[in-house]
Amino acid sequence: MRILGIETSCDETGVAVYDSDRGLLAHCLYSQIDLHADYGGVVPELASRDHVRKIIPLLRELLAEAGSSLEDLDGVAYTAGPGLAGALMVGAVFGRTLAWSLGIPAVGVHHMEGHLLAPMLEENPPAFPFVALLVSGGHTQLMRVDGIGRYELLGESIDDAAGEAFDKVAKMMRLDYPGGPAVSRLAEQGDDSRFEFPRPMLDRPGLDFSFSGLKTAVLNALNNTADYPQKHADIAASFQAAAVDTLSRKCERALKETGVKRLVVAGGVSANKLLRAKLADMVQRHKAEVFYPALPFCTDNGAMIAFAGCQRLLAGEQQGLDIKVKPRWPMTELNPPARVQSE
Ligand code: KG4
Ligand code: ZN
User: pTM of the full predicted structure?
Assistant: First the structure.
């Protein structure tokens, strides 16, 4: 089965062709980072308009690269939520309509399910069950995953998401948007022991996270420390150490509590080098394994949507002719793939 995947939930237009026998055939991505950089964050209306501009040229480029034509497709998968309503609508209208015009099924995919399953595109995919840490700009969640669509929420952030904390800290230091890569680059030149930032919620039982106190501590350090040349780099390093330490220790706790020996980390923050190094140490201590998507598939992309959609279409699931998006859509509402026409 050959599936076109379309991702337009935020500031990246991503398309891909995934074949259930041959794997990923091609993927193309257009990032709107430059468009939003002047505003220090994503402007929803500009994002929607840019998806409209880019989606057809990107699809043409993709089909040429995949050596495929529209007639070779057996289904279309598009991100139906969560995300920005207008941006989601572009991919949903385009994907649903294209599938209708080709007479093939379509399926709306949950963006975070796409992230979660992205490590399965790799050569050594994780087997079920696994614990998943989903860390993106909008989500910080620990899940127990027993199969596709079988997700049990173990813990989540009660305030800011981890990626959001990186983005806000970057903004405080007037670094480039998106903040994650910029903060971690600056952190490489800093001393992470210079500032003692809080590791929120580690002293309490449970698997929830909180990052807003850490963010406030960073703001106080910025405002209340006399300037010196390394100040920003030291703050970035100390912040990153605190955020990564918190994520790693909660993953450790989740592995211990569930007795599961496989950890999957996905979403934009999973690209973070320090996080990967810490988790490598941690899983080694527990004789467990950690799995990541390839770097281009950590942040938003069409390949993860094509893959997740393919699993659901293979099981006979498909979307009716109505076009709906769900800007808010808890992942725990998902069910295993089944021969149903989803709402
Ligand atoms: O998954 P993603 O591309 O979009 C969402 O679904 O949110 O994640 C984007 C988030 C941003 O907050 C960005 O700052 C963060 O991932 N990020 C990073 C790194 N690369 C991206 N955070 C920390 N370190 C990185 N290397
Ligand atoms: Zn994402």
Answer: 0.95
